[in-house]
Amino acid sequence: MNIKGGNISLNGEIDAPGDKSISHRAIMLGAISEGKTVIYNFLLGDDCINTINCFKDMGVNIEVDNTKVVIEGVGLNGLKKPVKELYVGNSGTTIRIISGILSGLDFKSTITGDKSIQKRPMKRIIEPLSQMGANIKGKNGEYPPLIITPSEKIQPITYYQKIASAQVKSSIMFLSLYTKGETRIVQPIKSRDHTEKMMKYFGVNVKEEENSVIIDSKEKPIGKEIFVPGDISSIAFFMVGALILKDSHVIIRNVGFNVTRIGIIDVLKDMGGNIKTYNFREVNNEPLVDIEVKTTKLKGVDIEGDIIPRLIDEIPIIAVAAACAEGITVIKNAEELKVKESNRLKAMVDNLSSMGVDIMETKDGMIINGTTELKASKIETYTDHRIAMSMIIAGLKAEGVTEIDDISSIKTSYPDFFKTLNELIN
Ligand SMILES: O=C(O)C1=C[C@@H](OP(=O)(O)O)[C@@H](O)[C@H](O)C1
Ligand SMILES: C=C(OP(=O)(O)O)C(=O)O
Prior knowledge:
This protein is α/β, with parallel strands linked by helices and 426 residues long. Helices cover 29% and strands 27% of the residues.
């Protein structure tokens, strides 16, 4: 697609789309709970639809009516052997967390996904799930398809995570429901805690002590009504857009404000960004706010350490903010970006360089020297939704016509992205 940038502002009020991480978890937990779960504001992105399809393929009755989803929970052991391979499309969250559930079941399953998923590392879940007694194998010990065969001896463990990953933590948490006893996960840095919050809300005994999560499998999950807060990772594109595009003023309603997710707000405020939050409230253990953003001249900052897991998916759009800021931004400890849907460090460095930005990839991040003007150019998205949306916002800032090779990936996480963008531009 072509983006004609240069003289664009974003103005208006929008609703944030449902959070992707919370939508996945609501389907998974609802499906294995006793009784009915009703989800409101569900994200109808391809990734979450693939999660629904996996559970439908295991016999769960799931009705989708716009963004309301009703699940007839089958209980921990009520899932049925699928007649074919389970397919997660592009979704790392689905394959990694579902594997925890599949490892506790009494039938064999195979789970796979698209080309990008087949290159995503799975040892990180194979190792702890195997320690719990699971029989789980990947191609070359590492990659999807994953083949999971039943095990008689699923047991609780204490696991020291090497990387801060909520997908790995959640995979272990789901399998812990199939054990007898107490599972403890010790995190190097606290990652997003939606599974902890949702399991507690569904009646599971989950405790947190500093960076440890402790699940006692005695209490089983019971179906609930759940409202999915808006996705900070999706509205991040419009927050940065409103900051860097002239004369912009955007209000975003119903944004999830979970501390483990809002590192981007801390960083953008640190950069001087005019961002205000209002109407703090809570739904099913998750905080929620409305956010107001106005155009600001940003300045470069250092981003490293414990904040990284709190903004991991927002680094591509933060790089766009840094490219338009005065001074240097240094991002460190972000090596995980190399194993997402694409190598996001390389993708952003190549694309922003092509727009004339002085930017350099480092071993675990990037160094960006901001500029006042971006040049229109040709962009490669590597079929990665976050790269596509980040570069569209950069394209709106650049003078001239930017050509983006492929925007089809955007529907994995934000199917209404263009509808919302058009509302803000017009
Ligand atoms: O648990 C989740 O819902 C997610 C966790 C993060 O991945 P890691 O667990 O690999 O850090 C994040 O990048 C991904 O988009 C969603
Ligand atoms: C990394 C992402 O998702 P996943 O790991 O679920 O593919 C993302 O949405 O940016």
